[in-house]
Amino acid sequence: ELASRYNEKLVGLPLTTPYIDQSSYSAFHLYVIRINSEKNVKTRKQIFVELMAKGIGVNIHYIPVHTQPYYLNMGFELGSFPQAERYYEEAISLPLFYALSYEDQDKVVKALQEIFCE
Q1: How far apart, in whole angstroms, are the C-alpha atoms of residue 3 and residue 32?
Q2: Helix (H) or strand (E) holding 33
């Protein structure tokens, strides 16, 4: 329900919301948006910092495995998996948990609207 509500309220912003297949059910333990870098002057990092400054508890899921020190030491290099790296540069996990109220969700949406309209 909350994921569908985010999808409805985030329409028109320069981001991609998670796909919801109407013929199946997802627990949505995470709600990850992707910042559309082609339509945005701000980076994911800038948007992340601004959301945190507005009191929105966002997170990043997940750092590409091949960029972890262990794998870099094994010989993997940046650029080895460009799609994973692109995803990482665009992804922000928005608050989503069982007790998230509509009011709190609306604060998240409003903060995103303000950031994208600045």
Answers
A1: 10
A2: strand 31-35
pLDDT digits (tens, 9 = 90+) for 19-37: 888 898 888 899 999 999 8
Q: How many H helices and E strands in the chain? A: 5, 3
Please list the residues that pair with 15 across neighbouring strands: 35
Contact 43, 37 (CB under 8 A): yes
User: 114-118 contacts: CB < 8 A, separation 24 or more?
Assistant: 114/54, 115/42, 115/47, 115/50, 115/51, 115/54, 116/13, 116/14, 116/15, 116/40, 116/42
Rounded Cα distance between 51 and 59, Å, is 10
pTM tops 0.85, yes or no: yes
